[in-house]
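Q: Focus on the shape:
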Amino acid sequence: MLQSTPAESDDGRGHVIVVGRAPEKMREALDVLRSAGFSATGTFNRREALAAIAAHEQLLAVVAGGSVDEQLEADLRAASEPKGAQIVRAYVGHDNPTRHFQDRVLPVLEQLAAASTS
């Protein structure tokens, strides 16, 4: 699991859990989220993802990569919705995860963050 430091958690934009399987691409994805002001935790399997969700009272979103099947997505949704989170589908393993997260994931998270403060 790749976790945020406490300083990254104090930004007020909400916490995002990312579920994927490639550590090097996960780092790129998390860097994009953190540079946009979100705190984020990267996880690599069901156990880590559910533990990361349980560790937070409130969440903005759970970003589910391509390795997340329907059953895991349902489990993530059941665990995270009571904490205010939305499931966002993404392709963490994209050839260029930085670009994918900038173009496809950040706009969704920006909308969720704006809606949560209004």
Notes: The chain has a mean pLDDT of 90. The chain has one domain: 6-107. Strands lie at 15-19, 39-43, 61-64, 86-89.
